[in-house]
Design a protein that fits this description.
Helix content is 8%, strand content 42%. The strands form 5 sheets. A 5-stranded mixed β-sheet has the order 1-3-12-5-10, with no helix packed on it. The protein is mainly β. The protein folds into 2 domains: 53-176, Spermadhesin, CUB domain (Jelly Rolls); 187-313, Jelly Rolls, CATH 2.60.120.290. The radius of gyration is 21 Å and the shape is elongated.
């Protein structure tokens, strides 16, 4: 991930947390370069054998393999670490050297996904597990809660530590995922193909930027011919067609709460373009498991000069 993209993502997370009053829990280490030292972590790798280590902050974003150690200097009551990998990776998390007092109200919880402003990514409709199974609670698991593996390229750790000197080490390792599903993009620019191989499931690709989306060579099962429109077509039109693609926009991360921009219920050999001027833009693929479904697309930053022929929409979520 580029430095500018990581900077934007970090500032986005800080702004969201500040809305709910959690930015006051950010800790700064006087011996560090501050929060922006997180942005250069990839440059610190010297060889394939290099093991990256650094302190874990009360509010943190982790985008690399390594060991991250949190030690409380004062009571920290609402901390969170956001972990993100590449689109074709999942995340293995392991808690080590844990020294907290669960009986005094301390806790460490790992979540399979992200939680922002009370919204969860992936949504209940898109994640393969029920919500209660997506939480791993160290204090209630008695050892079994020491490890967790995400279902997609993002995961999150919530923790509360009261006693000075108490803490833990979080080991992060990214693993290859042959069939990525439910992806949080680290950049507004790039190309990707979502593939669902004969499975009844939903997959979303979320970009936390206003972007222009281009779809080409869309392959859908039980397809029928319909034209793409600015407004959402009748839901039964697409839901009855087997597989389909939704383009969504909104200010949160829960796809079930986002504004529907367009539905595509048909296979596509040409080019479809759409500009989504929202804080979060999503390509969502719904498969009925009848065939192997593929959705190739590319995204670019939305600017007034990019692809003047593309259809446009504005984000209406905040006005509803």
């Amino acid at each position: 991930m580029s430095l500018s993209a990581r900077t934007q993502l970090l500032l986005f997370l800080i702004s969201l947390l500040s809305i709910v009053g959690r930015s006051r829990f950010i800790e700064e280490d006087d011996d560090s370069d501050g929060l922006y030292s997180l942005l250069n972590m990839d440059q610190k790798r010297q060889s394939a054998d290099f093991i990256f280590r650094r302190p874990l902050r009360c509010l943190d974003m982790l985008a690399t393999d390594g060991y991250f150690t949190f030690v409380a200097s004062q009571p920290q009551l609402a901390c969170a670490a956001f972990v993100i990998a590449e689109p074709d990776e999942v995340i293995s998390l392991e808690l080590q050297d844990v020294s907290i007092d669960c009986t005094a109200g301390d806790f460490i919880k790992i979540f399979d996904g992200w939680v922002l402003k009370g919204e969860k990514f992936p949504s209940r409709q898109d994640h393969p597990l029920p919500l209660h199974q997506r939480y791993t609670d160290y204090c209630s698991s008695e050892g079994a809660g020491a490890t967790s593996r995400s279902s997609q390229n993002v995961a999150m750790v919530f923790f509360r530590v009261h006693g000075p000197g108490s803490g833990f080490t979080l080991a992060v390792k990214k693993l290859h995922n042959p069939f990525p599903c439910n992806i949080m993009s680290q950049s507004p620019e790039g190309s990707f193909t979502m593939v669902i191989p004969h499975q009844r499931r939903n997959c979303s690709f979320s970009i936390i930027y206003p972007v222009e989306i281009r779809l080409t060579a869309l392959s859908l099962g039980q397809a029928k011919s319909n034209d793409i429109g600015l407004q959402r077509q009748v839901w039964s039109d697409c839901s009855g067609s087997g597989d389909y693609v939704e383009l969504l926009g909104g200010d949160g991360v829960d796809t079930s709460q986002m504004f529907p921009v367009a539905d595509l219920c048909f296979s596509l050999s040409g080019l479809a373009q759409m500009k989504i001027g929202c804080d979060n833009s999503v390509v969502r693929l719904v498969s009925a498991a009848t065939t192997s479904t593929a959705c190739p697309f590319s995204t670019d930053c939305w600017s007034s000069t990019s692809s003047p022929g593309a259809e446009r929409t504005v984000c209406l979520t905040s006005a509803l």
